[in-house]
Amino acid sequence: MPHPSTTVAGVEITPLCDAIGPMGPALRLPFLETFLGAPADEGLWTLHFHCYLLRGRDGKLTLVDTGIGAADSPAAVWAPVPGRLLAELSAAGAAPEDVDTVVITHLHSDHCGGSVNGGTPVFPNARHVVQRAEVEAVSDTIRAAVLDPLGDGLHVVDGDTQLSPGQWVRLTPGHTAGHQIVETEGVTVFGDILHHPVQLADPSIRYVYDDDSDLAAETRLEQVARVRAEHRLLATSHFPDPFVQL
Ligand SMILES: [Zn+2]
Ligand SMILES: [Zn+2]
Q1: Which ligand number lies closest to the CA of residue 190?
Q2: Which ligand has an atom closest to residue 175 CA?
Q3: How far, in Å, are 24, 41, 62, 107 from residue 103 at the CA level?
Q4: Among the bound ligands, the one closest to the CA of 240
Q5: Domain-located, residue 31
Q6: Residue 1 domain-assigned (yes or no)
Q7: Which of 8, 203, 211, 215 sits in a 20 to 30 Å window from 90, CA-based?
Q8: CATH for 161
Q9: Ligand 1 centroid from CA 151, angstroms
């Protein structure tokens, strides 16, 4: 457990560090071609891959994202597999069967790859919350590897949706068509709204792998402004330090 948990408004939030490694050869570009408009070349980009466990006041467990998954995950072409999610979950005192809700921020392989292993859902008792726009735009690879095996465990929502008292998902398109973030009182789990701290310093800096660059930039500017105005704790997917207090 490289990163400590924190508690905000009675909800315990634990970063689960699924992997740490450089962007793999299949997607690697020079830093300045990855982050368009970045002020300086930072060289090889080493990412963390964070999922989050939220333990609510009612004791219910929500897992946000499932990481890169097993050695045969679709993420293997570019990310360091296998992920350590289940070891991290165990270290946080939870078993896969205990998870009530899985929120998949979006269907990129490093955010949903750990949902299924060997064709079987890893979190058998959980509803898996995904936006309808994301399901409709999914690649054939991810549909076959993740969505189809989830079967009845897939819970499709349309837009901003309350999941439980005090817990919401919000549709934040741009990085992907149906990208969503998770909000609890005082905390936002940000998915891939941001990829690197340079984008928090200047949210106008674009990420080359955003599906819709203009919409992603609009969403990023709007959401960063919102977390700043509300002084929320930001839980990031790929920063070296998971939490940023704004
Ligand atoms: Zn980490
Ligand atoms: Zn992504």
Answers
A1: 2
A2: 2
A3: 25, 34, 7, 11
A4: 1
A5: yes
A6: no
A7: 8
A8: 3.60.15.10
A9: 30
